[in-house]
Amino acid sequence: MSTLKRFLKNTVIYGIAAVLPKAINVALVKFHTLYLSNEEYSSNTHFYVWIAYLNVILTYGMETSFFRFFNKEKEKGKVVSTSFLTILSTSIIALLLLLLFKNEISNFIGFSKPIYFELLIWISVLDALVAIPFAYLRVTNRPIRYTAIRILNICIYAFFNILFIWYIPTAIKKGYFLPEFIASNYDASFKEGYIFIANLIASAVTFIVLLPIIFQFKISFDRRIIKNMLSYSWPILVAGLAYITNENLDKLIIKSIMGDFEMGAYAAAYKIGVIMSLFIFAFKLGAEPFFFNYASKDNAKEAYAIIMKWFTIAGSLLMLFVMLYLDIIAPLLLGKNTFFQLLNIVPIVLLALLFSGIYNNLSIWYKLTDKTKYGMYFSIIGALITISLLFILVPIVGSIAAAWTTLAAYGSMTVISYLYSRKHYLIPYKIKDILFYILFSVALIIAYDYFVTDNLWIATVFLLVYLGVLFIKEKKELRKILKR
Fold first, then answer.
1. Which of left, alpha, beta for 338 (phi over 0: left; psi -120 to 50: alpha)?
2. What are the average pLDDT values for consecutive 10-residue runs of the chain, which has 484 residues?
3. How many helices (H) and strands (E) does the chain have?
4. Burial bucket for residue 256 (CB in 10 Å: 0-12, 13-18, 19+)
5. Which residues neighbour 145 within 8 Å (Cβ) at sequence distance 6 or greater?
6. Which of 21, 164, 261, 262 could cysteine-pair with 154, CB 3.0–4.6 Å?
7. Contact, 346 vs 369, CB < 8 A?
8. 3 state SS of 289
9. To 10 degrees, the CA torsion angle through 23, 26, 27, 33?
């Protein structure tokens, strides 16, 4: 099997691990926006923004560091054990400190109920503890097992969402049988809280299922290994915090300036961008271990360039597809009409997320050259752009300024990373082709929105035009790929 085909095969399997759980999550967006008000959905979004921050802090770049050192070190078991013990130790310390000051921190970051912050702590700690077992499955090419566990996690989460938010209140209302302790203790005003409890149950089960992976290895701690890993990972931690700021600060600012109702509508419209996130996440799961494992090959840089080009083609096509059929997609993903008022941010968000995927692709140069500090610098630049523009523009322009800010941040990070890569790790990217496909899809979206809108037949013609141009330009390369 050729290297490219092996990469594609693993990406497809990892894609299932990414797409199916996130597809269920997409279905839950519809479910949540049907049963939650804008304000309750805002509270739900607020919770997961802080989950994202805490997850980055508790794993502090160790997952990427694990990929790097698992391939470099001869004693693989020591890398696994040392990595896990380090995260376990720091997670226990964080758990104790956060629980000790839970009331003060909860009030400071704006949680309406302290129990929400307590649930956030436990979920974040459990998710941090499974980072290394999941990374081990990826780096040892076990995508099927990885995928099965990810699917188990989301199925448990979805089941308890439906149980808590729909079935139990329906059973109480219609007089169906329920155990007395459930019927008497169910709190209808705690809707979003039940979502968090469902997440906690799913995270706990996932931790239990993955724990045997750690016990395969002799429990040991190597100071030399962890010193090197932490030296490699701390810039990734800073970059991760900056990335989460680029991704999520907009929601917090809109909540603060525009209110919960507006934030709920913005967060729901932003969720349509999860379609692009699905693609990027699936790609990343297959690409990251592949990039590290393939780095020693003579044609590695050429392979990276080909993968970048086709990533951009696929991402541009996906962006075009979503926008051409947005009138069908939006009602499928969102519930009540109160969540439809900010759909004008969707094309901006999709393009911003596409640039974030290209940036993630580019990041291989500083990861392979052990210059992760550059990733930190680029992310800090992006975060500074995000913070500055959000505080300046949102009070003046409104919520759409937050979407433009995200695009400005990711676009800037992509350009800067590319310019530095030419100096430190030159990869022969097909820049003209990459720009062509992005601009061509954007031009088609603008033309359709300006001249047509809401005509499925013409939308399909626009899509076929893109595919036709793609085939004409790339038919030789497509034939080569299919023959391999």
1. alpha
2. 56 65 79 88 90 92 84 77 92 94 88 88 95 87 83 93 92 84 85 93 95 82 86 84 87 89 88 83 72 73 86 93 90 79 90 93 83 85 93 92 94 93 86 94 91 83 92 79 60
3. 22, 0
4. exposed
5. 137
6. 21
7. no
8. helix
9. 180
